[in-house]
Amino acid sequence: MTGPGERPSPVLHAEDAPMVTIPDEVARIATDHLGAFFEAVSGLDKRALAADFLDATKSQKRARILERYVTLRSKKVLEVGSGFGTNLAEWIKRFGIDGYGVEPGNVGFDSAVHASRLLFEANGLDPGRITNASGEALPFDDESFDVVYSANVLEHTGDPELVVSESLRVLRRGGMFHMEMPNFLSYFEGHYMILQPPLVWKWMLPIWVRLFGRDPGFARTLNTQINPNWCRAVAGRMRRNYDVTMLSLGEEAFVDRLSRQFEFETAIVAGTLGRVMSAVRILNVRNWIGRSIVGLRGHYPIYFTMRKN
Questions:
Q1: How far is CA 10 from CA 22, 54, 264, in A?
Q2: Which of 68, 142, 273, 284 lies in disulfide reach of 289, CB 3.0 to 4.6 Å?
Q3: Which has more confidence, 67 or 253?
């Protein structure tokens, strides 16, 4: 049986199966903290939310996107907002990266540092690779990493532009900056699991979620200014201090995904949008829908990717 919003796990080949073991204590912490918090936000079952968040198969999908730009194997990687450590541990074991994570513990993630260290210990990895720190003040020397990565973190930070700047500071020349984030000009709000209109002012999201009977408190904490226009502007300002080339905001990945059977990153989102995307695929002759959405800058998610020259 699957929980609310879940889909059965796909059949995996042996070589694709997750290499990371999730200890029962970590699963419990994820359910009682992250799951319980976002259950109130999204209206979905806390166990399904926790299981989705800890699902290591997502790490392979993320790696495929990142490896459009850089090979992961043997690279020194920093994950900003490493959460419960699942993604970082999977990449260390699967790709042999020299991986480190920073996690400040934020709303829904108050036990993340402790849980991620438990997960690392259970998988024979050094828990000291996880540091309790924020993306706005990375505790590393300049030019320390080949790749700086994050997924669904920037919208929760106190100063997202400072996080980008700090990430570029610790990135080596020739290194890759790659951050996945929601696009608030898009059609979907992934925290509340609801369709939304494009957001052009911060006050819009709290009002919108209230129409669905949801508590707007969490919506007020999100950096809803994040969209392709914001990313381009930030990249321009970063060039004042760093020689960077912006490679992508994820448009080509989005168009590619819409041209075939749409592959969702999480089972939770698949449960919410699966039928909608099936209908889109039928109507999407020659991918006109995908190209139109990109033209309107509404693709989801954003993969903000820059190379430091």
A1: 18, 15, 12
A2: 284
A3: 67
Q: Taking every pair of C-alpha atoms in the chain, what is the biggest distance, in angstroms? A: 54
Strands 145-151 and 171-181, by their bridges, are parallel
Distance CA 109, CA 34 (A): 6
pLDDT band at 208 (very low <50, low <70, confident <90, very high): very high
Is the pLDDT assigned to residue 277 strictly greater than 70? no
Phi-psi domain of 297 (left: phi exceeds 0; alpha: psi -120 through 50; beta: other): left
Cβ-count burial 141-158 (b if 16+ within 10 Å, e if not): eeebbbbbbbbbbbbbbe
263 near 235, Cβ under 8 Å?
A: no
pLDDT tier for residue 13 given thresholds of 50, 70 and 90: very low
Contact by Cβ (8 Å): 94, 59: yes
pTM summary value: 0.87
Q: Which domains does the chain have, with CATH numbers?
A: 14-250+302-308 (3.40.50.150)
Query: Quick one: which of 52, 37, 61 has its CA closest to 301?
Result: 61
Q: Give 282's contacts (C-beta < 8 A, 6+ positions apart).
A: none
Report how far residue 34's alpha carbon sits from residue 37's, in angstroms, rounded to the nearest whole number: 5
Specify whether the CB–CB gap between 155 and 186 falls below 8 A.
no
